[in-house]
TrEMBL record:
It comes from Flavobacterium psychrolimnae. Residues 8-314 form the D-isomer specific 2-hydroxyacid dehydrogenase catalytic domain. Keywords: NAD, Oxidoreductase. Belongs to the D-isomer specific 2-hydroxyacid dehydrogenase family. One of its GO terms (molecular function) is NAD binding. InterPro entries: D-iso_2-hydroxyacid_DH_PdxB, D-isomer_2_OHA_DH_cat_dom, D-isomer_DH_NAD-bd, NAD(P)-bd_dom_sf. Residues 107-293 form the D-isomer specific 2-hydroxyacid dehydrogenase NAD-binding domain. This is 3-phosphoglycerate dehydrogenase. It comes from the Bacteria.
Length: 316
């Protein structure tokens, strides 16, 4: 049986699938050619990340398709219910990339509180001629320790983020309409651990209380953070989104950054991917990455082997 990993798959995932008797194709097929390629090559399994979309048209056009797999958590690029109604298995890897995404959240938080995103732009330009000026410009850093991190969505990635925050000595609060409370265990290198319970609170109270806010939610119909929500936040709040584009009103965010209401933002995802707005890309108060939350070698290895094991158990 053939597997098309259209957005790539780790070497460990390929080896596991080949060991299970599958042929793995890693050719990158253009979106409009996916259905033809699947049919012409008798592909049984299509694996995607966030780039390739598997909608009703592809599902209808490919009667031989048995599994659609998403390397990662969110499946908003797949018509999941429709695929299942056609007898196609839809799988994903919700646990594989949690730590990688959480670490990127903190990369953005550290960048924001110490102005690294901006100083890394300006030091090459002015470091030799305006060293003292830049030193003064970036002199008002903030420590994360002792501050309150508000986590919107306390699922697997939210919990991984909470563990890192607790390890830094931050206070952690959360809002999640599906998870009323959760026990979070921070494990240390020597086998010791500490467990604390995080009780979900209202979004409004989180927005009012948090010094920094990070979003860990699936794609939404509307904004979670827009002008109204920004208005009730603390002055000088920091906001990070490594979840999905479209959950923050970017026009309202830029306005809040320009006014100083928001100190900085860290964005890994955007309303208009893969062509984010220039007002976002050029704003010196935003730390930017191109949707790379799960893009670590360790996460991709876990994703590849987990997908392989699910495919083998379903079709092997």
């Amino acid at each position: 049986m053939k597997v098309l990993a259209n957005d790539g798959i780790s070497k460990s995932g390929i080896l596991a699938l080949e060991k299970g008797g599958f042929e793995v194709i890693t050719t990158k097929v253009a979106q409009e050619q996916v259905a033809n390629f699947v049919n012409e090559n008798n592909v049984s399994v299509v694996l995607v990340r966030s780039a390739t979309k598997v909608r009703k048209d592809i599902i209808d056009a490919c009667p031989g398709l048995k599994i659609i797999g998403r390397g990662g958590v969110g499946m908003d690029n797949i018509d999941v219910d429709y695929a299942k109604s056609k007898g196609i298995h839809v799988i994903n890897t919700p646990a594989s990339s949690s730590e990688s995404v959480a670490e990127l959240v903190f990369a953005h938080l550290f960048s924001g509180v110490r102005f690294l995103h901006d100083s890394n732009r300006n030091m090459p330009l002015e470091g030799d001629t305006n060293f003292d000026g830049l030193k003064k410009a970036y002199a008002n850093g903030i420590e994360l320790r002792g501050k309150t991190l508000g986590i919107v969505g306390i699922g697997r990635i939210g919990q991984a983020t909470a563990k890192m925050a607790l390890g830094l000595g931050m206070k952690v609060i959360a809002a999640d309409s599906f998870i009323p409370q959760v026990d979070v265990t921070v494990s240390f290198f020597d086998g010791q651990s500490i467990t604390t319970t995080i009780v979900s609170q209202s979004l409004e109270s989180l927005f009012k209380e948090a010094d920094f806010i990070t979003l860990h939610v699936p794609a939404q119909d509307g904004y979670i953070i827009s002008e109204k929500e920004l208005a009730i936040m603390k002055d000088g709040v920091g906001i990070v989104n490594c979840a999905r584009g479209g959950v923050i009103d970017e026009v309202a965010l830029v306005k809040a950054l320009d006014s100083g209401k928001v100190l900085f933002a860290g964005l890994d995802v955007f309303e208009n991917e893969p062509t984010p707005e220039m007002a976002i890309l050029m704003n010196h108060k935003i730390s930017l990455t191109p949707h790379i939350g799960a893009a670590t070698g360790e996460a991709q290895d876990r994703i590849g082997t987990e997908l392989a094991s699910q495919i083998i158990s379903l079709l092997g």
